[in-house]
Amino acid sequence: MNVLEKVDYISDLKKLNNSELNILSSEIRKYLLDNISKTGGHLASNLGVVELTIAIHKVFNSPKDKIIWDVGHQSYIHKILTGRKKQLSSIRQLDGLSGFPKRCESSHDTFETGHSSTSISAALGMAMARDIKGEKHDIVSIIGDGSMTAGMAFEALNHAGDIKSKMIVILNDNEMSISENVGGLSKYLDRIRTAPTYGRMKDDFENILNSIPAIGKTMVRTAEKAKDSFKYFVVPGVLFEELGFTYLGPIDGHNIQSLIKTLNRAKRVNGPVIVHVRTKKGKGYKYAEQNPDKFHGTSAFNLDTGKALKKSKGIKYSQVFGDKLYELALKNKSIVAITAAMPSGTGLEKFKEKLPQKFIDVGIAEQHAVTLAAGLASQGLKPFFAVYSTFLQRGYDQIVHDVALQNLPVVFAIDRGGLVGNDGETHHGVFDFSYLSHIPNLIIMAPKDKLELEKMIEFSSEYDKGPIALRYPRGISVVKNELTTNNELILGKGETLIEGKDIAIISIGKMVEISYEACIKLNNNNINPTLINIRFLKPIDENLIERLSNKYKLIITVEDNVINGGLGTTVNQTLIKSNYRGKVLNIGLPDRFIEHGDTDKLFEKYKLDSNSIFETILNYIK
Ligand SMILES: Cc1ncc(C[n+]2csc(CCOP(=O)(O)OP(=O)(O)O)c2C)c(N)n1
Ligand SMILES: CC(=O)[C@@H](O)[C@H](O)COP(=O)(O)O
Ligand SMILES: [Mg+2]
Questions:
Q1: How far is the CA of 305 from the centre of ligand 3 (A)?
Q2: How do residues 311-326 score in pLDDT, each as one tens digit?
Q3: Could you count the other beta carbons within 10 Å of the beta carbon of residue 148?
Q4: Is 145 in the pocket of ligand 1 (CB under 6 A)?
Q5: Considering only Cβ atoms within 10 Å of each terminal Cβ, which end of the chain, N or C, has fewer?
């Protein structure tokens, strides 16, 4: 680590010569691998942008020049080069570095990301602000080919090409989203990659014409006049050019010297520029190059074998969902599965492989996916849009306007509901109950375990009267025999799991099992709780809640959503309607963004583990 040892800040990097920069890139790769194999994190994307990040910091002067990382999962090298090298071992851990750019971490993190395709809009905003204020600096956004497929990116390109403010968009094209990239743009980039260059084609063309005796020269002149149509066939990046960008590339994103040269050229262009850079996801680590999807976001692994250090016992909710939907789709021909670029994360790999004609990957385009589902449902199909809770936030208006208003039977299979752990603020699914619970026509349910998830998927596949939101958490489903019941799943009905005489606890989803553990502790302290698995947030079981309100002087709600607008708020409103005079305690997440860290640690910190719930209730009663 001879060179990396000397590099703590970009000022150190600026002093290095070409051969030292090349050594630095190898050393950074090794440093990344040593650290991320222990902590886990977004390895493959970072391995792919080592040279690009070095070149960006060599050419531009951050933080005066503004650098924006789209998604931000590939910003680890940027962190290493901007004074956070030694903290890399803490990345994504509670109180450690975030896995995404964070303004509170460094002045070099100019814009926070986590969700994709925001960087061009942000860059244009910054460029316009700079121009209005009469300042002089560069604005650079780095966006992947996957992220470029989203509507927001297109909206921003459309605007930026028109405004003509000076800004640089680096398109990092590794031919991959998390899985294989999809869509027309991806095919277009592929054509650019494989096309001969405009300059060479043009020369060849002119040489052929010139060689034709007598009329050749006239034909060259005619061709010159028709150059625009000629350009359409052969110029790389014409799509971007036509939108108003200067297109540079495609260039080898692992060649630091050519990157530096092209970025310097981009710097001199007075207007919006797109620099098309080709990289290899997972570059330099055999297992990540071979399997970029698996190493996109990885847990800790053995460097020599590429195998995960911890084998998870049990089955993940996502897998339960994917398997069950596949099983149902074999019988119910109207079922269609939709993903927005997350086939593996949502457990749909098997469905994709075995029923490709019923599987739709729209790319990173959640808004489009929701309205597409509405279109499918309007024609009698049964679409299941499997989507992470946090990314469905993108499709809010489409849920209201295109699905719920027309009462179309779309199922939102909302994965990663609740706290997701190490990704942090941008990824926790803690707002879904709140952003959905006020939408008319929408049914909202959450299973206590995988068995109930299967029942709910079956219920959803048969229900044709309107839309359903089915929310489940990240990770493994714990099934407790004591909680396994034969209670039929009836729309809007909860189930009583424990009948006690002192207090009532109403819980939902994953929190049912945790609340059950708290109940055992309460019982050991001579407090006999009733435990309700409410199952449906909407329609809420008003009869059951009224019955509880007549019997108990204390009613407690437990959820892994923010209390505002979630189960707590919904139960409180129901209790007000039934004139409840007793006390209510809402346990859930506070009105603030929750940071990153291991899920268990976050549950403890935010007092949602069974011990904390027990103590909170005990203290309240005392
Ligand atoms: C709105 C949104 N949807 C989905 C995701 C999940 N996601 C994170 S990275 C990624 C792939 C991005 O591909 P690309 O931009 O090409 O970057 P690469 O990982 O290839 O470097 C996806 C789908 C997200 N972060 N934001
Ligand atoms: C950066 C991003 O948005 C995804 O890579 C996300 O981190 C995946 O999360 P899971 O690990 O829960 O699939
Ligand atoms: Mg990519």
A1: 25
A2: 888 999 999 999 999 9
A3: 28
A4: yes
A5: C
With contact defined as beta carbons under 8 Å apart, do 412 and 392 qualify?
Answer: yes
Task: Establish whether 366 is a catalytic residue.
Answer: yes
Residues β-bridged to residue 383: 336
Cα Rg, the chain, nearest whole Å: 27
Q: For residue 272, give the nearest of 432, 109, 385, 140 by alpha carbon.
A: 140
What letter would DSSP give residue 245?
P
Cα 338 to Cα 357: distance, rounded to the nearest angstrom: 11
Q: Identify the residue whose tokens are 């099934």.
A: 479
Rounded alpha-carbon distances, angstroms, from residue 454 to 8, 178, 408, 447, 556: 52, 27, 22, 9, 27
Residue ranges of E strands in 320-465: 335-339, 359-361, 382-388, 411-415, 443-445
d(CA 397, CA 570): 22
| 471 phi and psi angles, rounded to 5 deg | -110, 130
Contacts of 146 (CB under 8 A, 6+ apart): 116, 176, 177, 178, 181, 341, 363, 364
* Domains, the chain, with CATH or none: 2-195+239-290 (3.40.50.970), 197-235 (no CATH), 317-471 (3.40.50.970), 495-621 (3.40.50.920)
pTM score of the predicted model: 0.95
pLDDT digit string, tens, across residues 186-220: 999 988 888 766 555 555 555 655 666 665 566 55
CA nearest 119: which of 147, 100, 145? Answer: 147
User: What ipTM is given for this predicted complex?
Assistant: 0.99
User: CB of 189 closer than 6 A to ligand 1?
Assistant: no
> Is 5 in the active site?
no
Q: Which atom of ligand 2 is nearest to the CA of 388?
A: 12
Contact 451, 482 (CB under 8 A): no
503, β-bridge pairs: 529
The number of residues in the chain equals 622
Mutate to test the pocket of ligand 2, among 176, 177, 178 (most ligand atoms within 8 A of CB): 178
- Considering 51, 112, 349, 366, which one is annotated as catalytic? 366
Residue 42 alpha carbon, nearest atom of ligand 1:
19
